[in-house]
Amino acid sequence: MSNHLVPRSDVSEFRKRYRWIALSAFLAFGAVAVRLFQLQVVNGAEYAQTAHENVIRRVTMSTTRGIVRDAYGRILASSRPSFNVLIVPGRVMPSARPRKVSRSGSVLGRDPDSWPRIADTLRLNPDERTRLTARIKDGCVTDEDRSPCWRAILVREDLSRDIVAELKQHASEIPGVEVVSQPIRYYPYKHLASHTIGYTAEIDAETLAKFRPEGFQSANAEARQAMNPLGYDPGDVIGATGVERSWESYLRGQRGWEKRVVDARGRYRSGPEATRLLDSPSRQEPLSGRDLRLTLDIDLVQSIERAMRPHAAGSAVVVDVHTGRVLAMYSKPDFDPNDLSGGAGRDRIRESFNKLYTDSLRPMLDKTTSGAFQPGSTFKPFSALAALEDKIVDPMDRERCDGFLSFGRRIFHCSHVHGKVDMREAIAESCNVYFFKLAESVGMDRIAHIATEFGLGQKTGIGVNPESAGRIPTRGWYALRYKGQFRIGFTLNTSIGQGATTVTPLQLALAYGAMANGGTVFSPQLVRAVETADGSVVQDFAPRVKQKANVSPQHLARVNEALYAVVNDAKGTAYAVRDGALEVAGKTGTAQTGYVNTGGDDPKKAWYLARDHAWFAAYSPAKAPEIAVVVLVEHGGSGPTIAAPIAIQIIKEYHRLAASRQKPNARTSKERSTVPSEPPATRPAKPPLQAPAAGDRSLAPQEPVPLDPRTSPPQGGQEAPPSPSQLPQPAQENAP
Amino acid sequence: MKRRDQARFFGMPRDHFDWTLFLTASALAVVGVINLYSATSVSKAALSDIYIQQVYWLVLGGILGAIVAVIDYRHYERLGYVLYVVGIVLLLLVFILGKDIRGSSRWIQIGSFGFQPSEFMKLFMIIALAKYLHDDPKTDERALKDLLIPAALTAVPMVLILKQPDLGTALILSLIFATICLLTKIRWQSLVTLVVSGGIAAPLLWSYVLRDYQKQRVLVFLNPEANILGSGWHAHHARVAIGAGGWTGQGFMRGTQNQYLFLPDQHSDFPFAVFAEDWGFLGCCVLVALYAFLVLWAIRIAATAKDRFGAVLAIGVGSLIFWHAFFNLGMVTGILPVVGVTLPLFSAGGSSVLTIMIGIGLLMNVSMRRYYVSPGRTHGLLSNL
Questions:
Q1: What are the tens digits of pLDDT across the range B219-271?
Q2: How distant is the Cα of A213 from the closest Cα of chain B, in angstroms?
Q3: A532 pLDDT exceeds 70?
Q4: Domain count of the fold of chain B
Q5: Rounded CA gap, B349 and B107, in Å?
Q6: Between chains, do A9 and B329 touch, taking CB under 8 Å as contact?
Q7: A275 contacts in B (CB within 8 Å)?
Q8: What pLDDT is recorded for position A7?
Q9: pLDDT of A42-89, one tens digit each?
Q10: Does A277 touch chain B if contact means CB atoms closer than 8 Å?
């Protein structure tokens, strides 16, 4: 056999290597197998989840923000649709994209640009046009799947309906344009009650970061819900001030969502294969926000606005003395929330903000609650009560007023020489000297005690906008402030509402309300009821008593009599402006501001700032009080001549409105049929939100949750925590 | 002994037809086409005919492979350097006629299809190396200078291919060379020198040869989750697709990563991810076992080859298949950086399919002719059938 075999060429050099090579190859594939085991079996579930999340997108369905109405059903804030235009750069300007070459080498044809036509239709000015053209070209340097070339950019906001119609009509000829409708907050009464109602704004980064802390995106659905109960996304609208902010959790509603199957390019896929991937629940219906019925009467606010027109700055409050309901609140200067709540476009909003925040009269500040001012003589009734309560002064005793009183080296002035006055006359004619003498024996702490009994120097708890507490100083306070050097002058100043004493107009209104109703201090109430979109009441809020002033009715009656004399006695400070048809009791105040031009202010400004604050605090009708009114005209001058006529005007208007509502059908055409004439307490309160489909647990909505998980939502009159970061700080008190 | 007995005992080449090799390769090709169908089913318009084209290429490759297998490989040995020069000329032609696709020119357009000379160069280089080692029998250990000419034979096409630039193919060439070197009895000092010089060359390669996009890929490999939306997109989504397969897979054509376009290059570089998503760990094991078996079988063919040329040729083709498969699987599963290396018989592409089919033809050739036949019948082109 061997003769048939030619010796093999020498392969012995290789012989020992095969085994090693084979082993290496085997191990290499083994490594791949191990890796596959790791990926597919060990971490398989995780990757399967990721793959699932890749194709499932939750498409949110927007909700409608609740409507805010006044007490008589007139809409103060609602939403209207606005149309925004978006363009996809790569589609409106195919010529900007890199040239495509086919395999055979020819340049692929492209659609013509639709951009010039779009720009014409939108009536863009040349500047905008160049800017956007540059942006499109920049975006389309590459046109790969995730390039900005395919990301829509916002071109115009709040288009007119004509342009929208034009765009829609020619939609097929101008590819790459998208018109999206977006609800925009709308305030039909514009400036009126703008501080109280507030405005909405796009959620800012800081607030958003609170709801979407780091790691939010990677958290599971439950954790996200806990972190961000109201489901804020970037670009969402949130209440910025006023009721819009404090009642955000009610007004906002809850966004619905629907799961859709998407591919890597963000296109929706349908069909049985896609549907198979949708896990339940695949849909949640949106829940629209709750409507609010405020206690305000916008007509009354309107009349205040009219009465205040001659003056640059000031505020007024009208409260119901038997419930603490706020019937009107007005702070001047005001602003138009429509300018701040979108619609007009970002640039316009920024401009409006700049203007509002640089104004030295501080239009963004709600002076009824955030502004603390020296009350001046409107404080005297409380000093008088303190004296009566402690039986230190006999109200019939007369004191002699020489127009001034000297204490040591200092002289304390009165408005003029009053001669001999008793307590009633001292209040009616606003004699300072009487109160200086009274204060000397009563002492500061007793006066402070009574003022505190009436709710002064404490936050009222209205729950809207940052609230100032004001200040009712005590000896202790002065001791701290002046390092033990207490002077009797402090007490004298306090007794006439000067010095360190400050109050907010709302506090004063509630305190006068308490004076009128026999000593009950109410928590102010701004929101009367929460309603569903169809008008049924979900929750209504009963008046809440804050405290009872511990004073004897006889003493209160004595002071009230004096307040009546202010307006109705011939010598009363407000007698000149009284309206014979109206029963009004009240007190004028002219508060020195203590302004000294040290900062080298412009003389015109200095003259303005040096003027006194004009006050008038009143209630009406005097014998059977319904409302308490406080008017403050900042740097208005004299209370009796400036503030009192405004207050009288407001009271007159109140009675006129009340009378017109008494007449049947006088206003019903304007009102909603469901307007409850009485507080709708008799209706059974329904749960805050009703499940749209009873029985389907998965669709059951969550209850609205407060903005800040640490605090409960604002209930009628309960104080809501304002976040001061966005808002101007309350006015600094004018320290003596 | 009469010739008939002799034929019965040793067999004619056609009697030694390597069914194992044939069936393994066929199984991979069939699974590959089925997988391509799933991979390209997503974009109905643009890619839908890719799997059909793949069938055409496989048929053409099968015919070419059969022809290559029929001709006694000793003729290739004779023509070894001629074929090599032809390959080099084709590579040079790329620079003149080349089509620029995605920043590199690798293609020569012939009629309506482009072909990639660098693919075929792999085979030409293997043949040239085999011829050199065949003609240079050694029994004592080789020093570095003994490998100088094989190194030069590798370096020339490598440089040309790096110029295109095509990092993946150049890498495969060098790895085939390295494998063949390891087959020889190389002195251990030489081996150390090689490894050390490689270590020195790597940073130089990094700073002077690698393009930015290639560096980016290596960086992505080192830190895979850094930039999922950008350069890490491929690697990330491939891994998700594979992982989502689980034990048994999502089912044929049901893998969402593929069907919803998250896998890029699903038909060229990432078909394995599609397969893994559809068929799961069990399917993957079968597939990897098939590749491993094919490679081991090639080594077996080399070990039983009757001469040095056949042995080196078989190891060369075996290493070609091995490195392609290993690099592609490694890249797709994330144990190696993303390098554009095709998966043999899985990736769509004419040149790649033809190269592999011809390579399998060469293996078959060596396998069929592992026995000696009578010297009188060794002449003539088809004498041994």
A1: 766 665 555 555 577 788 888 999 999 999 888 888 888 888 788 777 788 89
A2: 21
A3: yes
A4: 1
A5: 12
A6: no
A7: none
A8: 45
A9: 999 999 988 888 888 877 787 889 999 999 999 999 988 888 888 888
A10: yes
Give chain B positions within 8 Å (CB) of A103.
99, 101, 114
B13 inside domain: no
Range of the domain at B178: 20-370
Cβ contact (<8 Å) for A13 and B185?
A: yes
Tokens of A245: 């902010």
| Partners of residue A271 in chain B, C-beta under 8 Å | none
Residue A572, C-beta contacts closer than 8 angstroms, at least 6 positions apart: A428, A429, A565, A566
Cβ <8 Å between A12 and B139: yes
Residue B384 maps to a domain: no
A107: contact with B, CB 8 A cutoff: no
CA distance A327 to A510: 12
Residue A525 gets which letter from DSSP? B
Is B158 contained in some domain?
yes
Q: Which residue of B has its CA nearest to A34?
A: B285
Whether A165 has its CB under 8 Å from any CB of chain B: the answer is: no
Q: Which domains does chain A have, with CATH numbers?
A: 79-188 (3.90.1310.10)
Question: Could you tell me if A409 lies within 8 Å of chain B, comparing CB atoms?
Answer: no
Q: Do A25 and B299 touch (CB under 8 A)?
A: yes
Q: In chain B, which among 129-148 make CB contacts under 8 A with chain A?
A: 134, 137-139
**CA separation for the pair A393, A440 (Å, rounded):** 11
Q: A607 in contact with B at a CB cutoff of 8 Å?
A: no
What is the separation of C-alpha B357 from the centre of its chain, rounded to a whole number of angstroms? 10
With respect to residue B365, please indicate whether it lies within any of the assigned structural domains: yes
Determine, for residues B284 and A41 on separate chains, whether the beta-carbon distance falls below 8 Å.
no
Distance CA(A536)–CA(A528), nearest Å, equals 13
Strands (DSSP E) contained in A603-662 are 613-620, 627-633
CB within 8 Å: A13 and B241: no
Q: Which of B256, B281, B321, B324 to mutate to test the interface with A (most CBs of A within 10 A)?
A: B256
Give the whole-number percent of chain B exceeding pLDDT 90: 39
pLDDT tens digit sequence for A131-143: 888 888 888 877 6
Asked whether the beta carbons of residue A9 and residue B239 sit closer than 8 angstroms, the reply is: no
Token pair 């640039």 is found at A347
Q: Mutual orientation of helices B73-97 and B148-163 as an angle, nearest 10°? A: 30
**Alpha carbon distance B372, B5 (integer Å):** 14
Work out the minimum CA distance from A100 to partner chain B, whole angstroms: 11
Angle (nearest 5°) at CA A31 between A26 and A36 = 125
Q: In what order do the strands lie in the sheet with A627-633?
A: A326-332, A314-320, A627-633, A613-620, A585-591
Q: With contacts defined as CB-CB under 8 Å, which chain B residues touch A9?
A: 134, 137, 306-309
Residue A551 tokens, joined: 């004073």
Q: Do B99 and A105 touch (CB under 8 A)?
A: yes
Candidate from B244, B245, B285 with C-beta closest to A33: B285
Q: A699 with A560: CB under 8 angstroms? A: no
- Does ipTM exceed 0.85? yes
